[in-house]
Design a protein that fits this description.
heterodimer; A: mainly alpha; MetI-like fold; 2 domains; about 0% strand; globular; B: alpha/beta; Rossmann fold; six-stranded mixed beta sheet; four-stranded antiparallel beta sheet; 10 helices; about 25% strand; nucleotide-binding (chain B); ATP binding (chain B); phosphate transmembrane transporter activity (chain B); transport (chain B); ABC_transporter-like_CS (chain B)
């Protein structure tokens, strides 16, 4: 601005009075840039290291047998055997968990953002969601063990595991959905009200569709997170080496508990199976993340 | 179609803040009434009390009477949702629904209120888009997202969306303030056409616009910061802009303040 109001009247040559970037700033710029890259590298090194270790150890048993066979009748020392029972278990448990947790969590978030209006109940619900976020996963498992298995007398089952995972999944989905709903501009709600549309229809047909890509991403990330939970499953689904496709009856396997079980065995064949289990689990979670991103992008292109 | 609005002794509050004070006026059917006045004088608040949008804001409330052809909008068993079907609204910033196509945007008010028949929807969408002077520009891309239109087109889309539910009254809250002059002209032409069928109320900061489009003009003002807004005078637009009765009106329209 000051160059524009110079009293001399002559227009100064560009670069003359505006000046070039000083050497000091250039150096600072470089240093900060280097620091940022360094921090990035530091964050990536452990990730690459984990991936490399799991890949190099797990590829050996990544074969058809691993995907088509269970551990039924396979001893710790035996070669072969697979994780079919564990993959089925994990998929069923996570599907059940999502089926219970997502509706509850999304409705909670809708209440908090659209109806609660910062009232006492909304603040209390928000507080307890925060508390739930902090629950250690083993405590969720113990809770289900105490209530569902010991008090109510149900047996070990995939469903009991789902209940424990639900407790862990609800708060993350509530928070993610809440943030997405808050991002929906108020203009859109008002536009809908001004058309004589009742509030619940506005929420269902205007607010939720607008926030959908973000909600889908949040749900998928939560799914990926609970998929890797081990502790609550140890106490609720127990162990089995056989295929059990019924999540409501009898112990079921899951990938995390499969890894835990195999890694605890001192034989090389078991340890190899554990590594491959870990690799499959990572791939599964990656697949879910990719799926989430793809879904979110699909919704976004529709809306543009 | 159009209905007369009679307001008497209307006060509006935001929580403890007294936003507008004791407003009484008659808004004639099939005409355009413009609200002018400095920022914060309560024009928009008053506009929003006319279709009960004011109370959407937490803590907001209204006292007084708004009669729409003898029916009190604030009567004890009047459903605010039903009021808004009769009194439509267009906002300052164009706000088409981002997840919906052009067609769905126009049909939104009907679809969300349970109209399902495709042929009927097709007719109303075409009629509304024609009514908003947008049909020729969008008829080949009705399934494209509404958010892909230009600002002026989006605003006309919002007008089409508002008239698709066939309201009696159309409220416009600074509908051109986010638009360029050409789009503004298009909207003003549209207002001139729509007034044969609707009661139109428009809030504007642009006095030339008020002079161009309106039949009657109401001037609002505040006595000072934190004081409620009040209606200073209302009359024929030609009279307000040439021989206003109040000194404040004259000072405002001649640009001496505000």
């Amino acid at each position: 601005m000051s160059t524009l109001t110079t009293p001399s009247g002559d227009r100064p040559a560009l670069g003359g009075s505006i000046g070039a970037v000083s050497a000091g700033r250039k150096i600072k710029d470089r240093i900060v840039q280097a620091l940022v890259y360094l921090a990035f590298a530091l964050a990536v090194v452990p990730l690459l290291s984990v991936l490399w270790t799991v890949l190099s150890n797990g590829l050996e048993r990544l074969d058809g047998t691993f995907f088509y066979y269970s551990m039924n009748g396979v001893g710790g020392r035996d070669e072969g055997g697979g994780a079919y029972h564990a993959i089925v278990g994990t998929l069923e448990q996570v599907a059940l968990t999502s089926a219970i947790a997502v509706p509850i969590a999304v409705l909670t978030a809708v209440y908090l953002v659209e109806y609660g209006g910062g009232g006492r109940l909304a603040r209390a619900v928000g507080f307890f969601v925060d508390v739930m976020t902090g629950i250690p996963s083993i405590v969720a498992g113990l809770f289900v063990l105490a209530l569902w298995l010991l008090t109510l007398g149900f047996g070990f089952s995939g469903f009991a595991g789902s209940l424990a995972l639900t407790i862990l999944m609800i708060p993350t989905v509530v928070r993610a959905t809440e943030e997405m709903l808050k991002l929906v501009p108020n203009d859109l709600r008002e536009a809908s009200y001004a058309l004589g549309v009742p509030r619940w229809r506005t929420v269902c047909f205007v607010v939720l569709p607008t926030a959908l890509p973000g909600i889908v991403t949040g749900v998928m990330l939560a799914v990926a997170r609970v998929m890797g939970e081990t502790a609550p499953l140890l106490l609720t689904i127990f162990f089995t080496k056989a295929i059990n496709t019924n999540p409501f009856e009898g112990p079921q396997a899951a990938l995390p508990t499969f890894i835990w079980e195999q890694a605890g065995d001192p034989n090389q064949a078991s340890i190899d199976r554990a590594w491959t289990g870990a690799l499959v689990l990572i791939l599964l979670i990656m697949l879910f993340n990719l799926g989430a991103r793809l879904l979110a992008r699909m919704f976004r292109t529709v809306s543009r | 179609m159009a209905k007369r609005i009679e307001v008497s002794g209307l006060h509006a509050y935001y929580g403890g803040v007294h936003a507008i004070e004791d407003i009484s006026m008659t808004i004639e059917p099939r005409s355009v009434t413009a609200f002018i006045g400095p920022s914060g004088c309560g024009k928009s608040t008053f506009l929003r009390t006319l279709n009960r949008m004011h109370e959407v804001i937490p803590g907001a409330r209204v006292e007084g009477k708004v009669l729409l052809d003898d029916e009190d909008l604030y009567g004890p068993d009047v459903d605010p949702v039903a009021v808004r079907r009769v009194v439509g609204m267009v906002f300052q910033r164009p706000n088409p629904f981002p997840t919906m196509s052009i067609y769905d945007n126009v049909a939104a008010g009907l679809k969300l209120n349970g109209v399902r028949r495709k042929s009927r929807l097709d007719d109303i969408v075409e009629e509304s888009l024609k009514g908003a002077n947008l049909w020729n520009e969008v008829k080949d891309r009705l399934n494209k997202p509404g958010a892909g239109l230009s600002g002026g087109q989006q605003q006309r889309l919002c007008i089409a969306r508002a008239i698709a539910v066939q309201p009696q009254v159309l409220l416009m809250d600074e509908p051109c303030s986010a638009l360029d002059p050409i789009s503004t002209l298009a909207i003003e032409d549209l207002i001139a056409e729509l007034k044969s069928r609707y009661t139109i109320v428009i809030v504007t900061h642009n006095m030339q616009q008020a002079a161009r489009v309106s039949d009657r003009t109401a001037f609002f003002n505040i006595a000072g910061v934190g004081k409620p807004g009040r209606l200073i005078e209302i009359g024929e637009t030609s009279k307000i802009f040439t021989k206003p009765e109040q000194k404040a009106t004259e000072e405002y329209i001649t640009g001496r303040f505000g």
